[in-house]
Predict the structure of Sucrose-6-phosphate hydrolase.
Amino acid sequence: MELKKDWTTQDLYRPYQDWAPDYLENLTKTVKNSPWRFGYHIQPPTGLLNDPNGFAYYNGKWQLFYQAYPMGPVHGVKSWAHVTSDNLVDWQEEGLKLLPDSSYDSHGVYSGTAMPMGDQLFLAYTGNVRDENWERYTYQMGAFMNPSGEITKIPTPLIAEPPKGYTTHFRDPQVFPFEDGYLMVIGAQNEQEEGEVLTYFSHDCLNWEQLGKLNFTNEQMGFMAECPNLLLTDEHALLIFCPQGLDPAICAYQNIYPNMYVTAASYDKEKNALISPSALKNLDEGFDVYATQAFKAPDGRLLSVSWVGLPEIAYPTDKYGWAHGLSIVKELSFKEDVLYQTPVKEMRELRQENATTYTDEKLVTFDAKSNQYELQIDFETLASGTFTLLADEEQNHGMTITFDASHGKMKIDRSQAGEVFGEDFGTSRAFEIANEPLSLQIFVDQSIIEIFINGGKEVATLRAFPTEKQTQVHLQADAPFTTHFWPLRKMK
Ligand code: FRU
């Protein structure tokens, strides 16, 4: 099928049911012919996926939704697509669940969260609406999903307009139980066009009292704060959000928009403040993480999942009619007030065979045969070296990880990793790592790479689009290391 190229505003907002009956069928065929489809990551059946939404545990299953535009790899009118899982690694597609079909969300069911309430799952989301002059309206909406997966929208908004002094860039509600009620944390832009995180409180999830601006910094958080998430444990508070247009002097980043976090000792509702907040930090040192969503699971773990993709950037799969994926599920934890992100232990279920192990080597080369594997590499001393994945046989091409543990430096370069894209924002990322013997756990899945550094103290996530021949692994260092390699199975 000849893929649609020029998308007019009218195309982008055309109701799904107004597309020709065979349009999606043909698009599905085009997507099936795409290289770079994932084996074990969540991906859209067609079209575009962006933010994870509504991550929750309900009715004996993990529930996850994502922002979806099924008609093409563009930001058209959004719905929530739904996936469920028994084990956090095998995800079943449940289809589009929250559709832009009411006067409060006609131009997009935007991001939000979910939590169990009684025997239902409560969903909070933003309804995006445009009028005939393309003026934006924003409504904070609610819905209930029953155990059969059927959704009933609450007919009127939970919050009908932005508070006084704020623009209609007011979206992405996170709702969770707090004290004797519920807290809502939401992204906003004030009339001076500065990004802020606001909070609300409610006893019933229907009537919301405004608490105001969440205090956690004296710096200006860019022009808009998207997708805020506040996580509270007995000993810590963690705020994850996306400050668009942040001055890099406040915290350096190279992506078009960063996904950042602040840790704190606690949240004080009276002051509406994070107590002893840290400086802003990058959540991920790679190229392609945005809109990470996290929640406290009933088993006590803090679980997160990220959109692996960035707004306003073209990706090589666009020409096959789809774009982006979600990260694997990560567990968030604190050690001495430092945030760690690690793959959930359930990821081990994907390991296919006994590991191939190389012990005490300074040079290891092998053909992974397929770019769908896990690699663990551990040093006992401070070393430097270069690891090349997605390499061709001549080792001329590949994605390189260069490191120097004694100077605490790492650099990831994807300029030779296959089809190049996003060059405007650089083809390499250099960042600091701990001054300790390096340990890496790497998940490769066709065109997503997730690198967990030093037990998750740092994470670097990226997309790369290798040719079919680029399946070699080439590991070289100036001190011995031990490697385990596991081919990983597809998600069931
Ligand atoms: C972040 C975002 C959210 C919004 C959604 C729309 O990527 O812009 O702020 O709710 O995407 O798809």
User: Anything to note?
Assistant: The mean pLDDT is 97. The radius of gyration is 22 Å. The longest helix spans residues 23-32.
